[in-house]
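Q: Convert this sequence to structure tokens.
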Amino acid sequence: MNLISVHQLKRALEQGEEMLILDVRGDEEWESGHLPGAKHIFVGHLEQRLSEVPKGKPVVAYCESGHRSGIAASILLRTGYPRVSNVPGSITAWKAAGFPIVKG
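A:
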């Protein structure tokens, strides 16, 4: 599994790199704010919803701190996803860097 910092992720998004940003937090966490363009699938439902995650592009998973997204990344790698990254510090680090979030 690759690690990608919030700064690397923001730069990649600004450069228009194609990827799926996957938020694996709970519903209330998602609604309180998430990364722009992210797809929400709770980590506990990920294996049942793999068909919603395309294999043809890189997947970058995040949560609140990086623990659940590490689990999600492991699930994706184990089920054949070739390009998966985890964001250490996840949305906590994203907010601390002053990067924008989307609410609702």
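The first strand starts at residue 2 and ends at 3.
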